[in-house]
Amino acid sequence: MSLIASTRAPRRAPRTRPEVPQRGTRLPRLGVDPLTEAFASREPLMPWRDKRPVARAEVARLWRQLEDARRGRGKRLAYVHVPFCANHCLFCGFYRNKYRPEDSARYTRAVIDEVRRDADTQRVGRAPIHALYLGGGTPTALETPDLVRLIEALREALPLAGDCELTLEGRILHFDDEKVDACLDAGINRISIGVQSFDTQVRRQQGRRASGPQAERFIADLIERDRAAVVIDLMYGLPDQDESVWARDIETALALGPDGLDAYCLALFPGTPLYQAVAKGKVEPPASLAEQGRRYAAVSERLADAGWHQVSNSHWARTTRERNLYNLLIKSGAETLAFGSGAGGSLGRYSYSVDPDLQAYLMAGNEGRKPLSGMLEADSLQPLRDWVAGSLETARLDMGELRRRWPRMEAMASQLDGLVRHWESAGLAHCRNGVVRLTTAGRFWSTNLIAGFNRQLVADGPAPGEPGSEANIDGIQPK
User: Domain named Radical SAM core: which ranges (predicted)?
Assistant: First the structure.
């Protein structure tokens, strides 16, 4: 039947070439431990994959057309980027600008001007936004009056839904009591704090200035206010974060009792200070791939035992207050409005980036134009890819629903059946009555499974825009 119907570990010798994610095969290995050996590396899902660049000369004209067009179907998001940090943490690949207090007011003015210009357009201003995320960088680095002014302007200019999730991403440094209370008063209802680890040595090595006990006190004070969902971001696989440190990080988070918890695997990319430090032997190498898998299994098992609900592959909720709406929707391809230097968004089948160069961004704003640095166009199969990615992010893929949504995929039934059976044989999934559910190992390797599904489309599926493909999926017309 068709499925489509705390003693530290000894210091290890430094690697001269740190391990980095690689593009791999679509099929996992068989006959090995699925949690630690299913693939040779974890594969990141890059947002530009399977998309083609729009000619630079066409970007401004196309943007004007998109602004005047009616929005697509589904819930919408908004993302605001604040590209400043007090320092460059070793693990981070997003650092752009060192924060200076004199930059706060002018940057805030520029973003508010950008939001207000866009809000006057049909595409941006006439349909509800269900989740708004202020990320970075470090949004909480802004001076308190400027940050409050930005939040209030966003609420005033954008058509936020009545139950809109308003997330402020923050860092303990520069986020004092006055600023916390002012942001809550301005309407923030979700605060996500990048803790990474509560171990002082691990934190200091990665560039986090607050000690572990200081981080605990800060989180406890946030939770005690009981005015917003509080989310802790932890990271596993960091240098010096052995199994005992990771276990203590989990127990500390559980004892604090936040509304939500993220557990992200360290991704070591060339260009980051951590990659360079490991390559030069200055820092102990991060956890191996097998160790990362075991760390993921440890947090999954412990949170399940504590009664937490796993919302997505990397996120857990303790209370009903925590929805994780922005992260779930964006991974499903939801239309996203983007504001601020370095932000990225999407309208219909086009994705776009706001200029990451701060001076170029400010200059474009002074000239009254959207400061775009580029656009990409997706093919007609992108909504299918997004739907599959969003489904597997929650560890569940209904093959019958896939057939109902995209009936022309029936031609690929045998190939997709074979792919799912291979996942089952590898210990990464179970399938019953046409519904695929990922195991803990499958959740750990979920990005590899999504990438493998996408490659199956390319290898065996109908060419985008040709007979047999979904040329009008979700009302998006191919060019």
Answer: 70-306
**Where do the domains of the chain lie?**
34-44+381-475, 51-330
197 has a pLDDT exceeding 80: yes
Model-level pTM?
0.90
Q: Give the pLDDT score at 477.
A: 34
Which residue's structure tokens are 């160790």? Answer: 291
Residue 293 CA to residue 287 CA, distance in Å, equals 10
Question: In angstroms, rounded to a whole number, what is the distance separating the alpha carbons of residues 323 and 328?
Answer: 9
Which CATH homologous superfamily contains domain 51-330?
tm_1862 like domain (3.80.30.20)
Residue 6: the pLDDT is 34
State the pLDDT confidence band at 472, using cuts at 50, 70 and 90. very low
Mind listing the pLDDT tens digit for each residue in 375-430? 999 999 999 999 999 999 999 999 999 999 999 888 888 899 999 999 999 999 99
